[in-house]
Design goal:
alpha+beta, Ubiquitin-like (UB roll), extended
Length: 90
Amino acid sequence: MAPSVLASPPATDESDVQKLQVITAGWNDTMTFWLNGSKVYLEQPDPEVTLLEYLRGIGLTGTKLGCAEGGCGACTVVIGQWNPIRNKIE
């Protein structure tokens, strides 16, 4: 039988879809972060590009690929966030 003839119910309930739309209504496809003291804005970043690939792609080649599994630590980068109360990056 042709796939267009088969009518299957949706995988999720319509009310769940509406709830998710309400939750994500204010979200956008922009990623903002600080990199070596400079603010970086990425519009619609590729979800399949790793941080390692991004850094090396923009010329920051100090981070290396080692085991490709995250076990050896060769591709380690420091990730922190600004703490406005303590006025520093943690």
